């Protein structure tokens, strides 16, 4: 059984005494700290921290706990966010024809490995309908017309709003989101792509990589921004390959890395372990 906790995620200009003062707010009210992680970035002189507190150790709820931090936030010019783990995040998945990332996330969700709600899946193709509906999740086919993409993305945006998504995951969704949607959902849209981009931009990247004789292939999980494939990186991994590996071997190994990295990145996001500062992340 998972116990309810409150997560306190913060960042601010670095200085002496931050950890002590935050800890005092928690412990002076009887709070039991399960986990505390910190990082000081010397280059930017910026401090990052994440606390996890047993909810039943405090005599009040998350709203009053947030009020307890009001003075400290002002004193330290602190960005502070409180999360109640009883409020599960709502994750809308988007996919195209490739099934490996989508099916992996659905299976991890079904088994309870990913603790979130998946209110729907959106796709620009019908291919994944049977898979998604087998899991009992609504499937929405939204055509993105290559000559006029605006109506399709307007429908996508309406669905995201309708389902009150906290997070959107592009599980090999082969369309570029419009800039307006990227800005509206800043640090809420997670994507997966080949980590050897931008070395091999465009179609058939594994074929390009094979012809180049690469020795490592991999994947990068990142937040989507208006700059294509340049958003803050959440997670990465690689697989070693040799000259004897054929293109189909690279594709197979690449798919394994992609789905693992995407699931790991989504888990970090769901657990509020990712703090973004500029175009850089701290992942606790």
The total of helices stands at: 9
- Residue windows where pLDDT falls under 50 for at least 5 positions: none
Using the coordinates above, name the CATH class of the largest domain.
Alpha Beta
Provide the gyration radius in Å. 21 Å
Order of helices and strands: EHEEHHEEHEHEHEHEHEEHEE
Structural domain count: 2
What's the main sheet like? 7 strands, mixed
What does this structure look like?
- The protein has 2 domains: 5-84, Alpha-Beta Plaits, CATH 3.30.70; 91-283, Rossmann fold, CATH 3.40.50.170.
- Helices cover 32% and strands 27% of the residues.
- It has 9 helices and 13 strands.
- The chain has helices at residues 18-27, 62-68, 70-75, 100-111, 129-134, 150-162, 179-184, 205-212, 247-270, and strands at residues 5-13, 33-41, 46-54, 79-84, 91-95, 121-123, 139-141, 167-170, 189-194, 216-223, 233-240, 274-277, 280-283.
- The chain has a 7-stranded mixed β-sheet with strand order 7-6-5-8-9-10-11, sandwiched between helices. Strands 2-3-1-4 form a 4-stranded antiparallel β-sheet, covered by helices on one side.
- The radius of gyration is 21 Å and the shape is globular.
- The two termini are 23 Å apart.
């Amino acid at each position: 059984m998972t116990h309810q906790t409150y997560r306190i995620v913060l960042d601010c200009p670095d200085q002496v005494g931050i950890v002590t003062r935050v800890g005092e707010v928690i412990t002076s009210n009887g709070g039991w700290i399960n986990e505390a992680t910190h990082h000081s970035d010397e280059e930017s002189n910026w401090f990052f921290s994440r606390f996890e507190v047993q909810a039943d150790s405090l005599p009040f709820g998350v709203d009053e706990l947030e009020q307890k931090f009001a003075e400290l936030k002002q004193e330290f010019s602190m960005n502070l966010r409180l999360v109640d783990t009883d409020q599960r995040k709502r994750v809308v998945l988007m996919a195209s024809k490739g099934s490996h990332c989508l099916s992996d996330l659905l299976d991890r969700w079904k088994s309870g490995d990913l603790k979130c709600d998946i209110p729907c899946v959106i796709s620009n193709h019908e291919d994944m309908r049977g898979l998604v509906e087998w899991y009992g999740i609504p499937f929405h086919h939204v055509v993105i017309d290559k000559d006029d993409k605006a109506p399709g993305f307007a429908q996508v945006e309406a669905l995201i709003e309708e389902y009150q998504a906290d997070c959107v995951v592009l599980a090999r969704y082969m369309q570029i989101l419009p800039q307006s949607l990227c800005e509206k959902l800043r640090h809420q849209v997670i994507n997966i792509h080949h980590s050897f981009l931008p070395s091999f931009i465009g179609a058939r990247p594994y074929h390009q990589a094979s012809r180049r004789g690469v020795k490592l292939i991999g994947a990068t999980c990142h937040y989507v921004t208006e700059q294509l494939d340049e958003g803050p990186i959440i997670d990465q991994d690689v697989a070693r390959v040799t000259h004897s590996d054929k293109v189909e071997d690279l594709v197979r190994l690449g798919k394994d890395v992609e789905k693992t990295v995407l699931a790991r990145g989504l888990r970090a996001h769901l657990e509020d372990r990712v703090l973004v500062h500029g175009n850089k992340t701290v992942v606790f």
